[in-house]
């Protein structure tokens, strides 16, 4: 609480004292309302919430692997056995409200992909916070895809995730779509690496871990030398392949989404530290893989903020500067 300053002239000049107090109080209020430094989250899912499956979740839960729990009837992707699980939104409205409130408070802009209806709602609710991204829907023609990217609503291509279908990203069925992105100068986010623990047993029987190898992108990049790709999930856990691919291809970036909150903290920091030590601190993007848990934003931000091996400049690169460079955006639009 602000106290009246005890300057000698306060008793002699009460009007000046009052003005000084008002000035101090106004400054304090301005400081409280000062915006947080901008953050760009490049990996958010615009999804409809199914209340029957909207379970709370413990971060860093993969230290307890599905199938390793004695007596479990079936493996479970989500662990809720911790003191403070993250609360899941129970409806589309709750998810949108909490997400937008958190984004405003933390000054976050996010690249979101998923359900078109949800995306349009989010964009209408917070036009300066939402950057829509489009994937390749089943049965979508190349022309329809190009038209969608050309109409001004979608600005990014992703999430592309052929791995869940047991396909390589270099499969020629995707090649023309990548050609459109290259022609239009649209960056592409491709799911590589981990796909969620036990995924092949739970919801995606066609999922193949081998189809997440970063080296599978080499032929794509050779066919489309001007294509800008960011590897979602940073190709985890294939760090050597990821470093080699980035070394050979100047336009390849990575995001930290998913594994930044699902694997044990020691493992997360090991992987991130390796990327930085290899000299790629300027090509790491902040991402959450946010789904129905709005609190994941603060959880994931905390992982980066508490990484004592990163300088403040390196943290700002990950949170903001690298995305501005990769997407070729104007930083002033995010201040």
What does this structure look like?
The chain is α/β, with parallel strands linked by helices. It is 38% helix and 12% strand. An 8-stranded parallel β-sheet has the order 1-2-3-4-5-6-7-8. Strand 3 (130-134), helix 4 and strand 4 (156-160) form a beta-alpha-beta unit.
Short description:
The chain is α/β, with parallel strands linked by helices and 335 residues long. The protein contains twelve helices and eight strands.
Number of helices: 12
Low-confidence stretches: 1-32, 63-75
Count of DSSP strands: 8
Q: SSE order, as H and E? A: HEHEHEHEHEHHEHEHHEHH
Largest sheet: 8 strands, parallel
Q: In percent, how much strand structure appears in the residues?
A: 5-15%
Q: CA-to-CA gap between the ends?
A: 30 Å
Q: What structural class is derived from the secondary structure elements?
A: alpha/beta
Shape: globular
What helical percentage do the residues reach? 25-40%
Rg is 23 Å
Strand order of the largest sheet: 1-2-3-4-5-6-7-8
Give the overall pLDDT as a whole number: 86
Give the SSE map.
Layout: H1 14-32, E1 39-46, H2 92-106, E2 108-114, H3 116-125, E3 130-134, H4 142-150, E4 156-160, H5 175-184, E5 188-191, H6 199-202, H7 218-223, E6 229-232, H8 239-248, E7 252-255, H9 259-262, H10 265-277, E8 284-285, H11 296-305, H12 312-327
Helix pairs in contact: 4-5
